[in-house]
Amino acid sequence: MNNSKLFSLSIVLFSQFVLGQQREPIIDVHVHAMQINSNFANEMCPWFLSNMPGGDPQLPPPSFMRQDCVAPLQPATSTADFQEQLIQKINDLNVYMVASGDAGVLHDWHKAAPDRIIPSLGISNASGLSVEAFKDSLSGGFYKVMGEVAPQYQGMSPSDMSLDAYFAVAEELGIPVGIHMGTGGNGMANITAPKYRASLGRPFLLEDMLERHPKLKIWVMHAGYPMIDEMIGLMGAHAYVYVDLAGFIWSYPLEEIHRYLNRLVQAGFGKRILYGTDLMVWPDLFETSVGVIQNANYLSYEQKRDIFFNNAIRFFNWDRKDFQ
Predict the structure, then answer these.
(1) Which helix (H) or strand (E) holds 166?
(2) How far apart are CA 175 and CA 83, in angstroms?
(3) Vertex 288, ends 282 and 292: CA angle to 5°?
(4) Kind of pairing, strands 273-274 and 177-180?
(5) Cβ-count burial of 282 within 10 angstroms (0-12 exposed, 13-18 middle, 19+ buried)?
(6) What share of the chain is helix, strand, coil (3-state, %, to 5)?
(7) Is residue 62's pLDDT more than 90?
(8) What SS3 class is residue 204?
(9) Burial annotation 162-195 (CB, 10 A radius, 16+ → b, else e)
């Protein structure tokens, strides 16, 4: 079955899931609050990295997104449209979202849906926000989570000492941390992030930082894809490390996604996998990503509910009665 047919099947199954009034809560731990930029907001085919032809340094860089599938996802037309669609979706589908990004957009979302938007404060390096300001922000009550932390795009290890004081603040306050680890897409270092290094996505690079902060609870965004052996090794050694499925769940080939997810489950970590989308400008990306989990016939109903909900409740130490 090709990707287009699987995408259609995903939507059908998700619609049945919703229309059957089985609207059990879902927690999405990886959402980006963004201003909509018309230069970026193009149609996008799910699983667009199923074909990654090389480029030529003497020619324009290869296209990052594919738009030639049967049913490409449509971007929001404006920042206001993005918010309207997002709030409608989370209310209709019983979704809760951990979101980070543009502070103004995030405050607007939270004002519109205070019980469903969980604000998160992200950093990539030490230049944008002082440690003192960072601590004040996390102590103020609005931000509940730290992330996305993305030093890989800056050419830095997550254990770089310039970030250590920020992790110390999160450890002191008992704030969970989401850290980008893994791939960034086709030709990331050539197209949009020249400092990006694939080697800095190795999960084992987290160990020095975790040794310095033994009470810090983290989740590895993108599940450290594609470095499954290191991811399993890190989780085996560090009981407070979880992963999310964001990003790669809708960008890489479906067979590859299921291989990676199934390997995590087979290795015994089904209770430490968090559902996430890496939702950006395409509101329907949520249904696309949910459909991948719903269609995973190697997962039981209980395992799917763990990924969609139960694991996040446990990881963040939330009261499930607040998520109904």
Answers:
(1) helix 164-173
(2) 26
(3) 150
(4) unpaired
(5) buried
(6) 45, 15, 40
(7) no
(8) helix
(9) ebbebbebbbeeebbbbbbbbbbbbbbeebebee
Confidence band for 2, pLDDT divided at 50, 70 and 90: low
Distance CA 207, CA 200 (A): 13
pLDDT tens digits, 270-303: 999 999 999 999 999 999 999 999 999 999 999 9
Spatial contact of 80 and 104, defined as CB atoms under 8 Å apart: no
Q: Are 85 and 107 in contact (CB under 8 A)?
A: no
Residue with tokens 């944008």: 128
DSSP 101: E
The position carrying tokens 């079955």 is: 1
On the 0-12 / 13-18 / 19+ scale of CB atoms within 10 A, 97 is buried
pLDDT digits (tens, 9 = 90+) for 21-57: 568 999 999 999 999 987 778 899 999 888 887 888 8
